[in-house]
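RECORD TYPE: protein structure
NAME: Protoheme IX farnesyltransferase
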Amino acid sequence: MSDATHFERYGEPGFGDYVALLKPRVMVLVVFTAIAGIVAAPVAVHPVIGLAAILFIALGGGASGALNMWWDADIDAVMRRTRGRPIPAGRVQPSEAMALGLVLSAFAVVMLGLATNWIAAGLLAFTIFFYAVVYSMWLKRSTPQNIVIGGAAGAFPPMIGWAVATGGVSAESVMMFLLIFMWTPPHFWALALFMRSDYDDAGVPMLTVTHGRPATRRHVWWYTVALTPVALGLAFTSVGGPIYLAAALVMHGIFLRGAWAIFRRDEVMAEADGYAVEKRVFRDSLAYLFVLFGAIMVQAALHGTVLGAFR
Ligand code: HEM
Ligand SMILES: CC(C)=CCC/C(C)=C/CC/C(C)=C/COP(=O)(O)OP(=O)(O)O
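PREDICTED:
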């Protein structure tokens, strides 16, 4: 085996490996929130421009995922959840992932700027920088506040979408940012609770590792409480309305109930049912953003801005 080539040992990289570098499953929700930002804006976007913008935001998001995978390959190799990723599994060379991430980032930003405007492109560039450099390279390995501050990266896409349509920033787009920003910690900590020792093994200072599980449970609850005024307050802005309000009341009620259950449990109770509550809250967190941003799009359709684009 010693004189086997790299590819004889690990297999040829396939197209699927390069797609996996772009974190496509997470990017579905990221792109969904960006689309909501585009359609909720009070300015109609031509459908072709809108579709192009969505494509370039998706490519930019994917590119930032590739840069994250390149930088984090060493810790991904240690964690059970991530050790099958293309770089730690040996199917893609780190330098290839870095090159893909850099080229795709530049392409996505320039194309978004040419297709729409440079405010939107600048926001996309900043988002990529924030995820790849501020979160991945700096905060992730240095502070348990990593996902609280770094989570801002994932909150920018609706603002990018809004800027695509309007060329600017507004109170509504900042509120949509805050919705994802405040949602990210409970989304992630619910998962960290049932991922057990993964982050300990990798030496990543996640809250579960630095402050322990009871503290993480308290944080899930209080961040979900803090999310309440943002989630409900959006209903009373120009992107909200009765449908959004109904969706927010139901989804936020479910999220609060789950966060409370997490707060009230200890590890013995969680072990006993295989972390069923934590797993459910994580799944519910994904449904939460899909439904709330879906409701924003429905409200936009009712306000006529979507249909207006086709007139
Ligand atoms: C710092 C911020 C965040 C952290 C640390 C985080 C962490 C994670 C982790 C570790 C997973 C586990 C599954 C996987 O490896 O794919 C996950 C899943 C997921 N996250 Fe997040 N997340 C963050 C922000 C976001 C944002 C902003 C979104 C979208 C708006 C998002 C959407 C998703 C989705 C859709 C999944 C499920 C993926 C699947 O089905 O495999 N996350 N997240
Ligand atoms: C448009 C644009 C540029 C969007 C970027 C959106 C963005 C920052 C998404 C990040 C969400 C995410 C996958 C975090 C995972 O944290 P991690 O990387 O620590 O998780 P891991 O342990 O699974 O690698």
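COMMENT: The chain has one domain: 21-309.
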